[in-house]
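thought: fold this chain, then report.
action: predict
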Amino acid sequence: MSNNVSGKITKFLDKVTGEKKDGSGQWVKQCYIVETEDDYNNLYCFEVFGDEKVEKLNKFNKVGDDVNVEFNVSTNEWNGKYFTTLQSWRIEKANVSVAEELPPLSEVNTKDDNSLPF
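observation:
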């Protein structure tokens, strides 16, 4: 099941590393905080796991960005204790509009000849 939250990135937490169970190297994860405009339950701590995802998180996002986050809820058991995380798998900028992606009209080639292509 996928969930979605829209809000503003307010903080990046420190990267966390550890040894893989099979001893083949290290893993890395990073959490970040998104605050919504809701009156209650408006703070979310999302997690990304893996070198590539952590690198992309830091490369394309910054504190203050308005984002839409798609995530899964995951719960793991360790030594009789249960830990729930919000694992984000897509982060999109919320305030990007189509108008920002198009060039201004002054840059569009507007030929004033009456020739038709047929």
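thought: worth noting. The chain has a mean pLDDT of 86.
final: tokens above.
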